Amino acid sequence: MGKTLFDSPSFANHEGVHAVFDEKTGLRAIIAVHSTARGPAVGGTRMWNYASSAEALEDVLRLSRGMSYKNAVADLEMGGGKSVIIGDSRTQKTPELFRAFGRAVDTLGGIYYAAEDVGVSVADIAEARKVTPYVLGLKDGPEASGDPSPVTAEGVFRSTLTVARRLWKQDDLTGLTIALQGIGHVGGYLADKLHAAGAKLVMTDVNTALLAEVAARTNAEVVAPDAIYDVKADIYAPCALGATLNPQTLDRISAKAVVGAANNQLATPDIGQILFERGVLYAPDYVVNGGGIINVASEMKARQTGGAYDPQWVEGKLSRLMETLEEILERSAVEKRPTHEIADAIAEARINAARDQKAEQRKAA
């Protein structure tokens, strides 16, 4: 007998995994709800030309678990979920496809809210919104939070400054070289911030036209995609897809710190242990890149209360998240444990506390 969903190494007690197919539009999607302990599961929608449905399943399982941890560490009243649409976002997008996706999200009745992610734009989410209220990251209306990418980039930038203060005792990035992998939605905003703070940038991306544009305005050196791992840099900033910290790249990366926007940067947890043993400071990805989901959470909060998008609330949550990152880095140094283990422990404690509280409430009822 072949392997089932429950045999997957990425299955982590998910509450639900939903396969979606729409013959008319060609929609093939998977929606994974990892946890609703802290509230409705919230997470972006990724459109990617996966090599197989098995690869798409592994991705959505890992990403949805990561969202539970990300939302918990950011202290948001939301659980974790994620969705993936199998297809080429450059050639297979249609408004009808995203309305079909919206109808699929709607059938879940609000246990999952979708937002934008790789390959999906705010405009795509707006199409889904025409058929379901269970999407976030809109650009119109008083509660709309818009594109979360600038806030994600701000969180990554502040995390980079936090690491620079810890390792190099400086408040800006003057004299530091950063190898930036990916200058898409978040990476482009981040590049501008890093450049303004004095960093020397070496960057790569598969989109050569965009790469040339961003490099020109940030005085960056451009390298081929695979060459980014060999750059002599102080900080490696992965801002494209995940798992770039793996057995094939680890010995090529000479940076003393890893601070980037990509999700699931560690191919396997033991990579985090290896980085720690080598003295490389890894800023856990779902802490560093939590700014975007904080921005999205403000939209949900406004919708629930009938209020408007509140940038001050977003700033307060982002500042608190940076305090949590400081705590993680300090505890890692004191307890002599890898940073990803400390971050996981904080997230799991918050998720378990919420789950226990719900269980007690059910007993009382």
Secondary structure tally, helices: 11
How far from one another are the termini?
A: 43 Å
Q: Sketch the major β-sheet.
A: 6 strands, parallel
Number of strands: 11
How does the helix and strand content classify structurally?
Answer: alpha/beta
Q: What share of residues are in beta strands? A: 15-25%
Sequence of strands across the biggest β-sheet: 8-7-6-9-10-11
What is the overall silhouette?
globular
What quaternary form is this? single chain
Folded structure, characterized:
The chain is of the alpha/beta class and 365 residues long. It contains 11 helices and 11 strands. It has helices spanning 53-73, 95-106, 122-129, 149-168, 185-196, 208-218, 269-277, 285-288, 291-305, 311-335, 339-364; strands at 16-22, 27-35, 41-48, 79-86, 112-116, 177-181, 200-204, 221-222, 235-238, 257-258, 281-282. The strands form 2 sheets. The protein has a 6-stranded parallel sheet with strand order 8-7-6-9-10-11, with helices on both faces. Helix 4 crosses helix 5 (185-196) and helix 10 (311-335) crosses helix 11. The longest helix has 26 residues, at 339-364. It starts with 15 loop residues before the first strand and ends with a helix. The model has no long low-confidence stretch (mean pLDDT 95).
